[in-house]
Amino acid sequence: MVTIKEVAELAGVSVATVSRFMNNSGYVGKASREKVERAIKLLDFSPNEVARSLYQKKSKLIGLLLPDIANPFFPLVAKGVEDKINESGYSLILGNVQGDVEKEKEYLKIFAQNNVAGVLSAVHGSTKEFHGMPFVLLDRVNEDIEFAVYTDNFHGGELAAQAVSDRQAKHVVIMVGPKDVPSSHERLAGNLKVLNERNIPYQLYQTDTFQFDSAEKTAQHFLDQFPHADSVIASNDVYALAVMKETVKRGIRIPEELQIIGYDDMPFAALAFPGLSTIAQPAYEIGYQAADLLCRHIENKIILKKRIQLPVTLIIRESLREKMENE
Amino acid sequence: MVTIKEVAELAGVSVATVSRFMNNSGYVGKASREKVERAIKLLDFSPNEVARSLYQKKSKLIGLLLPDIANPFFPLVAKGVEDKINESGYSLILGNVQGDVEKEKEYLKIFAQNNVAGVLSAVHGSTKEFHGMPFVLLDRVNEDIEFAVYTDNFHGGELAAQAVSDRQAKHVVIMVGPKDVPSSHERLAGNLKVLNERNIPYQLYQTDTFQFDSAEKTAQHFLDQFPHADSVIASNDVYALAVMKETVKRGIRIPEELQIIGYDDMPFAALAFPGLSTIAQPAYEIGYQAADLLCRHIENKIILKKRIQLPVTLIIRESLREKMENE
């Protein structure tokens, strides 16, 4: 690999001059500038990131913590993050936490050891140790976080409850997301506000995880417990699809006997049959905006909003009954 | 951050001794060893990866190139990779290539600049420039690659064709994967061997991509072109699900009028209704085994097999007709 010393030698200038030129810091005369440019081109020089990282005390790497990469919501978030940070010249170190607090801490340590320029985290963990690294939280966000990109979970909960209660709901069951994830509470609060206002009876079913592995078993247990439900508000699309599958298996007609709404609008919600109605979260946009915010934060650029709330929308497909005009 | 110099001072030994201790290279006496251990513990010292990387000329990072993280096959591969490399103390830099050759080159350059210890690539690109980094290819593999983990695509193609032709197939359409992906050709060869042996008529439909974005439009175009098909061998599960959805929309019954088989066995294949029959590829295992091979390669450990072929299996669900015993 070509070194900065070789560039300086060929250009006939000092290493310090090449360094100033590369980092755009301090004065470099026009003649020197041209010589350095020519030498860099001739030698096909690309600065070693590790050497630069050690010198500048931060690298061109950004750490991303995800709760579960196998949940199809998060690859889309990662794609948004990656597109944005690439534009700004950064690359991604991935940490897939898998609901393990120790793993989360371990990753943050690894990020720090690699001098990452900043951290994006979609994990709502107990740890607040970011080792002084700039960070932006996304998706699963507490109120006391300074930099965050998230969606309006309360309103999403309202939309889901409105959608089912507009459509002859007499026995609603709400599948509540994991207790330790703040968005679960907000969505539930939105659900309950609407159902209570409209005097619609409901029951709750608590789930422990958003993960895929347990979806089918959960769906079976769920339908065993609530054989007379006519409406399900599911905690996410994976669980909604698992419930749909199990419902059809049991010979219960969707949406006539049981209507179902999910949350997320993953690509597969549209490909299911019947198509899954759901609350759309802009997964790619969450990742992209969070990455943009982090890059601005790192580079001390102007930040108009430190907390960005993105809208959610109701997507109607075949898993909901026809809307009653006079309800 | 604590430095190696501070550890040496507290321990009352030389920096070189601490370095030998940390790298497990050269002699360190018992007394010194104990002093260094105590100092490391007292100072909560963790070696800066960047400094170590510069010194050792390789980092504890591994680069992973994926064709499309939004295709649900690849997050599972990434999960397998991550689980294995974490066990061995490495972390992951992710590169999502998105079918862009320039982006692939750019990522390999970034990996090299960060002194990654090795590269895993599921991208079948035109570039062979790994900048001297150890690498293992996975999933999309050419014959001339030394280190590779892949599945038996030819046999997968045979299994899919056998499955449909065992079940009253009189008009088969094969959806062929992208031309530039070697596995597409191998699967097609497997399909054709079986169909030709059994004298079953077929037509081909060429697709340009495995990506999600175009699946629904492709499915519409596909069914417009082959209104009389009774069996579809799809290029992957995403396309199979898109065809299933469009088929049901058109009032064609699955599997009575049209039976469909996918490829991959993504989690969603099981949750679809009717359940999607498919050829299962062990995505997680591909990632895990490839990472294991790369770690052994990097660390000069014994390698029994440089090219590992993992088995594929036929998964029967409701999207295929009943098997005819006498066919």
UniProtKB/TrEMBL annotation, chains A, B:
It comes from the Bacteria. Keywords: DNA-binding, Repressor, Transcription, Transcription regulation. It holds the Pfam family LacI. InterPro entries: HTH_LacI (IPR000843), LacI/GalR-like_sensor (IPR046335), Lambda_DNA-bd_dom_sf (IPR010982), MerR-type_HTH_dom (IPR000551), Peripla_BP_I (IPR028082). GO terms for molecular function: DNA-binding transcription factor activity; transcription cis-regulatory region binding. Residues 1-18 form the HTH merR-type domain. Residues 2-56 form the HTH lacI-type domain. This is LacI family transcriptional regulator. The lineage of its organism: Bacteria, Bacillati, Bacillota, Bacilli, Lactobacillales.
